[in-house]
Write a structure and sequence with these properties.
single chain, alpha/beta, Rossmann fold, 2 domains, six-stranded parallel β-sheet, 15% strand, disordered N terminus
Amino acid sequence: MNEQPPGSMRPLVVRCGAFGDMVLLTPLIRRLAERFQQPVDLVSSGPWTIPLLQGQPGVGRIHLLESRNTPYWLNFPKQRIARELRRNGPAPAWFCDGNGAAFDVLQKGGVPKDWVLDVRDLAFGAREHFVIRWSRFANMTPPGLSVAPSMSRDGMIGDGTSPVAVQAAVIDVLPAWRSDLSTWLESRGLGNTTLHLVQAGNKRTMRSGRRDRATNTKYWPEERWAEVVRHIRHRSPESSILLLGTPGESELNDDIIRLSATKNVHNAALDLPIPRLLALMESASSLVTVDSGPAHAAAAVGCPQVVLFGQADPELYRPWGAAGAQAECLTGTVDGQASMLGIGAGEVTAAWDALEKRARPSPAVGVAAH
């Protein structure tokens, strides 16, 4: 068994997840950095990982895979990452993927098998939220590694072997992001208004075919979104309403704006890189969204929100941010089955009315990093 103490090794985490998955991973990263007194290196995928996590507390080097499923001998990014891992020497690893396609990076990178904790080998509660799951996982130690006990704190939960503090998701909004947002808002004439946000689309929206196809389980009709927009305008007549998303969701936003026939509603989907999105959410008074990555990001920066769930279980996936912002989660059924289509526009507007909305911070001061 290796007896190296904390402070002499950099933990390694492997997680190839979607945008929201990577937000939910932040409790694991911060806890490991705290335990080992070192930055945590990350093997991941997706164009969102670096802009989301680079520069965050506890995050070390980020190694990106273009495809985790391509065989190792054809996968040049995997080979490059494995060479770097071998060059840096063995590191304890937390493998967080439910599929083992990226595991060969650890094997080829020289990480001893008993220095790896594989989430697939561990038992978690059937409806255990991922914030709790990653908090537990971060407190576990690979069997081949001996480290000093982690610090004890109040508010512990048990994992069957040792206690662990639940650390919710958190993203620190960097000063450069706030500065960029301020310039962007001023250029759109939105520099001094209350901001309310709407995220109607999701990754399924960008696929070809009808938006209301059965496979788009996060579809909510455009007419209902338009009703929500009109309600926000009625309740907050001097505010600006921004519809979020990626470029592939811009057409959906245009349709909602047209149906709402409401003034001062803006389609921001063509101009929202991730750092600007996070700073915008930090500044906004509220968000109404489908269950999505942006919902988790909003919670991580403290934006109050109403979240519409379809088939996903809120017990597992509700936004849970360290800033403690309110997240009202709505569910519906159609013919006895969980469905977002079973949520009425009136339910959403009532939940929005109940939100404890926050005042927009002064642009000169900003919001303190969490």
